[in-house]
Amino acid sequence: MATVLSRALKLPGKKSPDLGEYDPLTQADSDESEDDLVLNLQKNGGVKNGKSPLGEAPEPDSDAEVAEAAKPHLSEVTTEGYPSEPLGGLEQKAASSLVSYVRTSVFLLTLGISMILVLLCAFLIPCPPRDLHSTWSRHLGSQGGGDLSPLELADVNGDGLRDVLLSFVMSRNGSAVGGSRPAANLVCLSGMNGSTLWSSLLPEEARDITCLELMPGSLAETVCLVTGTHKMLSAFNATSGKAIWTLNPNYLSNGTLAAPVVVLPDLDEDGVRDLVVLAIGELQPDLCFLLVSGRTGSPVGRPVKYNVVGVGNLIGPQVYITTNGAVYILFGFGNIQAVALRDIFVQAQNRDSSPPSLQIEEPEWEKRRSINLSELIDVYSDGVELLQMVKAPDSNCSNLLITTRQGLVLLRGQNLTPYWTLRLQGLRSQPTPGYFTDDQTLDFLLQIQDGVGMKKDIILGTEPPSLHHLYLLHPAFPSILLDLANTTGTVTASEVGINDLWKDAFYVTRTTGPSSEGHPAALVVSKLSLRWALMEGQMAQLQESTPKIGRGELRRFLSRIKFVEAPYEI
Length: 570
Fold this sequence. Notes:
It comes from Macaca mulatta (Rhesus macaque). Keywords: Membrane, Transmembrane, Transmembrane helix. It is a single-pass membrane protein. By secondary structure, the protein is of the alpha+beta class. The protein has three domains: about 135-170 and about 180-240, Thrombin, subunit H (Beta Barrel); about 250-425, no CATH class; about 430-455 and about 465-570, no CATH class. It has eight helices and 32 strands. The strands form nine sheets. Strands 12, 13, 14, 15 and 16 form a five-stranded antiparallel β-sheet that branches. The protein has a four-stranded antiparallel β-sheet with strand order 3-31-30-29. The chain is globular, with a radius of gyration of 45 Å.
């Protein structure tokens, strides 16, 4: 067998008589060509070389070949009779197989890790709740009276949806025994489903609820400031509902709180924004400001009194910051006056110096001081009913929108000069800012008793007077009015919020049902998703249009509406 394999691997041709040499002349005549030297494996393990019969081994050509055949080479013979490969080839194949195995293992390992990470993200990381309809109604029982209906929206649980905070006077059965004033309840409802997140008892009826961050920074907690109708001023943790601090009512012994608390810059340099409240005595001239620490609820100095005489509604107080950074407090009775926060701070601290942030003055405002250099600055004095601050489009300050008994006036915040004046009788509501035309200029929606306005006889003439509606009028379809919702209760407060995650808006209402002797009115809080209401609302044609607008065309248009925060500030 060794001889056969040795001859099979030799070059074709016949041997010359000389050992180890080939005869080139006889190579062409050789019957053992390269094609004849094919090794055929037989069933019995034998080898057929060329034309030799099965089982016959060719005779050696020389004694050298016999000797060579007697010494089988390890690389040429295997135990089974099959030809073997060189050792170098085996090592190369083994190395190639190892690299392929390692490469496949790395790929499978990477794929497995990726799948595990995807599963972790899908099941362990909570997804924000999808507020598709976000429409609910919650009955809070009976309320025991009260003239005010405070309502506030704030995200207190971090789910991305603004929750509902309100306060109401409880029935007499729930009042404190022997208490001179009925107790009230501060409740926080989930913006997702209306469930109660927390509630806290209040010693008196609440006038206002304001939720904000008093400490600058991304990790600051939201605080809810609650102003009472008498002497209560408290700060609550918006997440837990626990009271952080309460102003000692002894500091207001000679007066009661006349308006909601106002947030100021940091005056005592403790890293938390401070507050100011306006208190008024039994007589109108007895009016004072009290600075309060936003961190502890303690007074920052003594009360500062001013003698103000006026006829009409209480205006403010509101804080105003000019372009240069000067801080003023606006207030009045039927008029608007301003006092520099610097002057209030100096008198409260009974010293001549003030923080550097309060030493800034606005020259155009200071020119309006009286001849005797009074601390009060006259801003406007002509039957003022309402004061709103509207973000100016061309500066970083706000303009003053003043509603009077005669109409509207827009004052430039920089120099207090009129921007425009509108004479209009019969205003019955606060002007609503918005972009109702295509000129990218801020407009105002007005509600009047007579003339052209949102409320018309055609809308309310065929409905019972006890049925209240929520309508939508879009500038693109001025002849169509959408009836989004209606209620038979009395709407005492309402707020509009934006869901930035889903580009939706929602409308929260606080309503009370009819009351009878011995049965207090029921309190109901409702939330309505506007995008959902747009699809379900009833269409009312105010006037015929050409071409006539179909409901399908209107629905396709409304389905593309997305709600975002307005670029202006109030």
